[in-house]
Amino acid sequence: MQNLLALIENKIQALLEGSVDKLLFPGAASSLSSRLIRIIDEKILAQADAKEKFAPDLITLYVSPEKWDAWQETVPLLNQVASEVEAGWLEQGYQFRVPLRIQLAQNASLAVDAIEIATEITLPTCDTSKTVLQILA
């Protein structure tokens, strides 16, 4: 498992290195990639009682409003990162309920060079159409 995590982390870091380091500070891509992998791994491990373990399918990067425009330019890169992360976890047999997506959101309380990361797993949906008894009633 550690080899998988290191491999995915290295892929993410390589993708982010140019743009994120310029946006924030040297080494930011390394920090962000390791934080992303750690958070995803923790989310999977937290499902200890689940029969099937799902990887988070939504990652939200909260950024400072002062850097919002600059972060918008990284959206295509973040889409590529999402594809790489999803492929890595799928290779190891983990599942996603929906394709992995990385989105940006603003958080005015963050420092200019800070990033906050949140992850979510889509809840299963159930069919809520009316039954024959409900229609006749």
Q: What's the SSE blueprint?
A:
Blueprint: H1 2-23, H2 28-45, E1 58-63, H3 68-72, H4 75-91, E2 101-106, E3 115-120, H5 132-136
Parallel strand pairs: 1-2
Antiparallel strand pairs: 1-3
Helix pairs in contact: 1-2, 1-4
Overview of the molecule:
With 137 residues, the chain is an alpha+beta fold. It is 49% helix and 13% strand. The chain contains 5 helices and 3 strands. It has a 3-stranded mixed sheet with strand order 2-1-3. Helix 1 (2-23) packs across helix 2 and helix 1 packs antiparallel against helix 4.
Structural class: alpha+beta
Name the average pLDDT. Answer: 83
Radius of gyration: 18 Å
Main β-sheet, spatial strand arrangement:
2-1-3
Helix content: 40-55%
Treating each run of at least 4 consecutive H or I residues as one helix, how many helices?
A: 5
The quaternary organization reads as: single chain
Total strands: the figure is 3
Keywords summarizing the entry:
single chain, 137 residues, alpha+beta, three-stranded mixed β-sheet
Short description:
By secondary structure, this protein is an alpha+beta fold. It has five helices and three strands.
